[in-house]
Fold this sequence. Notes:
Chain A is mainly α. Chain A has 6 helices and no strands. In chain A, helix 1 (2-33) crosses helix 2 (40-53), helix 1 (2-33) runs antiparallel to helix 5 (119-140) and helix 3 (55-80) packs across helix 5 (119-140). The interface between A and B is medium-sized, with 30 and 25 residues.
Amino acid sequence: MTRVVIAFVSAMLAAAVVGSIIQTQLNLSALVELSVAVSFQTRISTIIHDLLHFSPLFGAIVSAVMLIALPLAYAIAKGLKHEERWWFIGAGFIGMLVCFWLVNSLVPMPTLIAATRSWPGLLAMSMTGALAGWVFGRLWHPTPKELQEPVI
Amino acid sequence: MSKRYRVLTQLMMAVGLCLSPYQSLAADKFDVMAIANDLDHPWSLQELPNHPLNFLVTERSGGFKLISELGFVDEIPLPLPDLFVSGQGGLFEVSLAPDFNETREAFFSYACGNIEANSTCVARAELTPTRPMKVTELRKIFVAQPLRKGAAHYGGRLAWLPDQTLLLTLGDGFDYREEAQNLSNHLGKVVRMTRTGEAAPGNPFPHQAGGYIYSYGHRNSQGIVYDSTTESVWQHEHGPRGGDELNQLHAGKNYGWPMTSYGIDYTGAMVTPYQELPGVVAPIYQWTPSLAPSDMALYNAEMFSEWRGALLITQLAGKRLQVLQQRQQAWQVVHQLTLADEQRLRAVTVASDGAIYLLTDSAAGQLLRLSR
Lengths: 152, 372
């Protein structure tokens, strides 16, 4: 039980951090396209701001998605006797895609997370679900080969 | 106790309970009276110049009403071409021509199209002089370009300049915020047109976006007035989370969105790391946290003589009326008033008797009179 909790929390943290950094880069690139200069220092301070203010919300969204997606993927993988890691990855990706669609149809604004307004942004942010699935599978049920890898 | 009397009592009590860091309005100095109830998300009000204290009121759902001083409500059929009612979209403002008494011309801003392709439109019409009032010669004269998806951020406020050209505020469509900096379209702009809907002569970008653009870099502006005393155009706009702005508009200037903002996105993410940039006009006042300014009127009457020259600004999320005055070169909130039930306020106008009339924003909206 402890292992699954640690795996899940680690996966959610990874997705929240990576998702936050991706959306920061997408937002800043939109400004750069408007000929706004963004220095390295400004980029770093914006990443930090968004990690503090955006990632908690995004982490909550990813967690809600994965609480449904991961058990579903596990059940399917067990039923079909397939490699569960790929099902976790796929379920995370599709779960996030469905979540963005669902959230945008429920909230008053057309698109809640600005970075998902474009297809590349939507796919990039959905990949955080895939990442969460991979991290979860890697930590919960590592392969014998992975268990032999050095910790650091 | 009748409903009308109960509302009046609640409102008068609320005036006294005004929660404010600014100077409170004493209850014994003010009367707040409900003139009309059960308006469906009323959006704008305009006093008829030849019938003092009779108001034209629009409803977002498309309703158009004439409301008398005593609260009698006449429905006026308004078959707007292509009206789109959804989300924030619908019928917005009614604005009468400066020479309305002679021409009977009225102008309507509204969302037009459908959920996949819509925009802000302006229609021109004539109002019959006798009751029951009717709308004739109704014709669409302007469609903001391009059409976009979704039902948010339309702008929609109108103001007349002394040369009888018409300013229209336009939103960025929410999902298209970067387009507020693109001079090849009307998203996030204030446009200036003639009363026939053509681009007004003298606009600063005659060869771009049909020559309509007056200013750009706006997010979603729902307040604009012309101040003849100072020859200024005052405009306010919604920021995202924080960063609502009051601006003094100048033709051809960039007001920054989304390159500069004092606010952040609803999700907590930064829209931009910059609050000010060279070449961008900074707001003369900004609200953080956001109060969601929804309309603005200039006070130049005698009833509240201490407010002469002040801007009256209604707030939706802030649920209050604010009075802003310029003191020592800076704009300050000098008074604010919160009504009973903390109602969202959608529109404000100053009538010929000097009283202030307000519209509340709900499915059972009210027309209120604030006087002393």
